From TrEMBL:
One of its GO terms (molecular function) is transferase activity. CDD domains: Beta4Glucosyltransferase (cd02511). This is Glycosyl transferase, family 2. It comes from the Bacteria. InterPro entries: Glyco_trans_2-like, Nucleotide-diphossugar_trans, TPR-like_helical_dom_sf, TPR_rpt. It comes from Clostridium saccharoperbutylacetonicum N1-4(HMT). Keywords: Transferase.
Length: 357
């Protein structure tokens, strides 16, 4: 059976750190907690779980702090988490099984990172990350913000989920770090350009965000999944300001990087629905229902686009086109995914009055 070092970097996480450590205490053989300058009770709380607490002077570089945490690990594999992550009981059991059965030739284990949820607790957005890595390989973190762990070798894609439950928000921290680096004359990698664009977008600085997004796409050095996601975000922006043709251009551009995704098809469908072009909208929503979600992909996915959303929108389109039978059928399919959705229940009553049940 393998042994696991939990490695974390924290700062002022008194509201969430106990929840995180409690969820992983039966998995980790040691806990390495690096504090980057807490002024609250974080270190006191951590002390209930481990004595291996290290101080690290913050230098606006997340990778430096994470690499320091990794350097203190002593077990076979390193598991890393953020303070607002938790491992749910069913995933704890999967991790326990993995500890007992993992082939020691595996260099890294990926897990699903569940970051979005609907009102029923269902996962709506997720992507993969390398979560458990072999210590002796000395894998390193790169990037001062939105850092990534560079791994290689034998990688195993697990079905374990890490659940993100954000409590604390630090809205301008990353944006300020990026701007500080620009002022210092730092040369941004394509990845830095992308994530700086994301920070600008999230702070509603759209003109500058689009400038950096297009710079990222035009570099032709981006990972194809990032290219697809950027196209989606630019599309969303243009739809929000009613520049529908410009929005569609970026949805179609995403097809250049991989086979069409349900997210893009739904965006195109929505653009035609907005223009009351119901036949065209129905075509693209139908396309979304036919696609198979890529297996073991590391990209970002909006699960609603791969399940209930296109069917609910097809209900609207076919109703507008006068094909009530098809509209009813798609509403029924949507209800299999979201049986308590108020919109779907409203549609059910509507169709009952039309004689469908």
């Amino acid at each position: 059976m393998i042994t696991i070092s939990l490695c974390m970097i924290v700062k002022n996480e008194e509201d969430s750190i106990a929840r995180c450590l409690e969820s992983v205490k039966d998995i980790a053989d040691e806990m390495i907690i690096v504090d980057t300058g807490s002024s609250d009770k974080t270190k006191d709380i951590v002390g209930r779980y481990t004595s291996k607490i290290y101080d690290f002077q913050w230098i606006d570089d997340f990778s430096a702090a994470r690499n320091f945490s990794f350097s203190n690990a002593t077990k076979d594999y390193i598991l890393w988490l953020d303070a607002d992550d938790v491992i749910l009981p069913e995933d704890v059991e999967k991790l326990k099984t993995l500890k007992e059965t993992l082939d020691p030739s595996v260099d890294s284990v990926t897990a699903k990172y569940n970051i979005g949820f609907d009102e029923y607790g269902n996962v709506t957005a997720s992507y993969r990350r390398n979560r458990l890595v072999k210590r002796v390989n000395n894998f390193k973190w790169y990037g001062f913000v939105h850092e990534y762990l560079a791994v290689g070798g034998n990688i195993f894609n697990s079905e374990i989920g890490i659940t993100h439950k954000k409590i604390k928000h630090t809205p301008k921290r990353n944006l300020e770090i990026y701007r500080g680096k620009l002022e210092q004359g730092a040369e941004f990698t394509p990845r830095d350009i992308l994530y700086y664009g994301n920070e600008l977008y999230d702070h509603n600085i759209y003109d500058e965000a689009l400038e950096y997004y297009n710079k990222f796409l035009d570099s032709k050095q981006g990972w194809f999944e990032d290219n697809i996601r950027v196209c989606g975000k630019i599309c969303d922006y243009y739809q929000s300001i009613n520049k529908i043709e410009e929005a569609r251009k970026y949805a179609f551009r995403s097809f250049e990087y991989d086979t069409p995704r349900a997210e893009a098809c739904c965006k195109i469908g929505f653009s035609f629905l907005h223009e009351k072009k119901y036949k065209q909208a129905a075509f693209w929503y139908e396309e979304a229902t036919k696609l198979e979600k890529p297996k073991d992909s590391w990209g970002f996915f909006n699960d609603s686009c791969w399940t209930w959303l296109p069917h609910l929108q097809l209900c609207v389109c076919y109703d507008k086109l006068g094909n009530y039978k098809l509209a009813y059928e798609h509403n029924e399919i949507a209800s299999q995914f979201r049986p308590n959705d108020e919109r779907i229940l409203y549609n059910k009553k509507y169709f009952e009055k039309l004689g469908f049940s």
